[in-house]
Amino acid sequence: MPAVKAFRESSGLAQHDVAAAAGMTDERLAEIEQGTSTPRGLELAMLSDVLDVPVDMLTNE
Description:
Protein name: HTH cro/C1-type domain-containing protein
InterPro entries: Cro/C1-type_HTH (IPR001387), Lambda_DNA-bd_dom_sf (IPR010982)
Shape: globular
CATH topology: 434 Repressor (Amino-terminal Domain)
Organism: Aureimonas glaciei
Pfam family, one: HTH_3
CATH architecture: Orthogonal Bundle
GO molecular function, one term: DNA binding
């Protein structure tokens, strides 16, 4: 999900900080950002909360 990476970078947040706040490993967040893995519902909700963007903004690529 490249949108996750774009929102994270535009917020000036480090990958490690977002991963920790969302309750996932750095590796898991990297997989999601690269599009090699799809986030589960709770992960998506946590990323939405941490990045302060609606879920649909993360999923509409």
